[in-house]
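Figure 2 data, in text form.
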Amino acid sequence: MNQRVSQLDRTKATIMDAAAEIVFGSQNVEAITMQAIADAAGVSHRTLYRHFPSRTDLINEVGRRYDNQIGVASGVENATRFDEWVAGIEQTVGFGATNLEMLRRTLGFAIASGEFRTDRDEMYWRLFREHFRHLDEAEARQDFIAIRHLLGASNVILIGERFGLSPDELVAVIGRSVDILLRDAEQRDRRAAEIVS
């Protein structure tokens, strides 16, 4: 049984290696197909789908694996509280600033394919709702989208580079913007809690 599990793990790792090379190395989103990944990994299409039911599942897994390899998981990825997520902006900007080419490719892929890391959004949404329990659902979604964009928008690093901002300056400006949004949301959350009481 252990030999079988070990072989499954090796096959999955081979698939993820091939997928990472294609996702992070491709200039053409059309080249990132499940068949291309299966071919690059040397496995059948059926084997690939046994390990990863969809391309989104595979991309999310490759993203998590890559994050773990570069150390991002020790910060934002492992956030269990809202304030940990918000505090991770410095690490996020630092990673983007030192990996600009990979950032350009993955951002281009995400925009062209419409496939973003949905697993992160679900986790961050849960943390946000635990923190702002009393906000109306529609209002909470609007606030979350604004804050999520500021805290995770890879393009802000590329725009900052274009305008000559250092990573420290980017952290400061994003931090100020998030603080304004959070103060406003916290005031509205308190008012909503008072109404419920």
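Caption note: The chain has two domains: 1-55, 71-196.
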